[in-house]
Amino acid sequence: MPPRPPKFRPDSWLATIALLAICLISLGNVIVRYATDASFAFTEEFSVFCLVLLTFAGAAVAARHNQHIRIELIEHHLPTWAQKVVFVLQWLAGVIVLGTMAWYGSTFALQEYQWESLSPGLGFPNWIYVVWLPILALAIIIRMTQNLIDRLRGKDDPEVIHES
User: Where are its TM segments located (predicted)?
Assistant: First the structure.
C-alpha cells in the first residue's frame, strides 16, 4: 500500500491539536492528583471544550473523505443516476441539520457575548467556547459540499476503505 500524502487542512490540524491537548491535560491531571491528592481546577472545562473541537473538526475531516457513518447497502445496488440522487439527498439532509445548528449556534454565541456570560469553572467568557459551534458546523457543510462534488463527478478518494 503506497503511503498517503499528509493532510495539511485546518480541520485536520485542529482535531490533532485538540486530541493532543486532551491527552496532555489528562496526563498532567493524573500526575498532579497522584503526587498531591489534588487536581487542577481547569481540566474538566478545557477537556470538554477540546472534546467538542475534536468531534466537530473530526466530523469535517470525515465528511470530506466520505468516511461518515451511513448505510451503504442501498447506494451500492442502485444505478448511477439513482446513486447521484441519493448523494444529493444525503448532502441536503446534512446541510439542513448543520445549517440549523450554525444558525442557532451563532445566535447563542452572540447572546453569550452580549450578556457577558462567564463559564462556571474558570470565569472565562462563554462565547469563546460557543463560537466554535457555528464555525465548525459551516466547515462541515463546506467539506460535505466538496465531497458531494467529487462523488457526483465519480471521483473516489483513495483513502476511503469500505468494509462492505
Answer: 12-34, 46-64, 85-106, 126-145
